[in-house]
Amino acid sequence: MTMTAATLAAPDGATLARRRLSLVSQPGASASRKADFARVGTRCSTCNLRELCLPCGLKAPDADLVDDMVYARKRVKRGDTLFRAGHTFDSLYAVRTGFFKSSVVLEDGRDQVTGFHMAGEILGMDGIAAEAHTADVIALEDSEVCVIPYTRLADPALQRQLHKVMSRELVRDQGVMMLLGSMRAEERLAAFLLNLSQRFVARGFAHDEFHLRMTREEIGSYLGLTLETVSRLFSRFQADDLIAVQHKHIRIRDVAGLRSVMNRDKE
Prior knowledge:
This protein is of the alpha+beta class. The protein has helices at 13-24, 62-67, 156-182, 185-202, 216-223, 227-239, 255-263, and strands at 36-43, 70-76, 81-83, 91-97, 99-105, 111-118, 122-123, 136-139, 143-149, 209-211, 243-246, 249-252.
């Protein structure tokens, strides 16, 4: 999950790379519960998320290469792990339904959230280079993924398509570092909410009303903010009539106002 320059935040690239390298060399922690496989086959051609997922932008006959493949589906219950750091890489995972978070373990034992992922996004690319995953990916609600064996992507046309997906992830990572390094706390949270809004719209949902699957502590970890700061900013945004908050339910009252929070230092 994980964005553009006006989106979410994570540790700087060099630090995160060192953590990931150290995690790869450690045996992966065993998941407390295993995700369930569904043997029902799924084709890209019948999926309403195809324009957000791996086939996005493919033209015939290259699109037929993806459509001809049948994927197994895996159900992942809330709180269960899709894969853990150190686990052997053999597949990519396309999110069909649900919501995931990715995280790495810091040297002091704390979890650092590095992304949030929703339907239509690809998980598991972190494991391609070292043939082992470098992060834990956990379901934030009952979810389902398509399992795409990496060996099935050997065709040059599919490799090019995968490179495009990876390129989009690199652009998001650059945006994350820019956000963490240059934005104030209130700008980070405003960008986070606006980015979620944009992502929900791309999936056919309302732009101004959604349910947060993650906790405020997880949001703070992702944005490089304390839980107290995140809670204070939610209260401030609500007092300023920018948003309405009821537990995890968010309604954006003033999109332009949220954008102005991000532009105050530029005016």
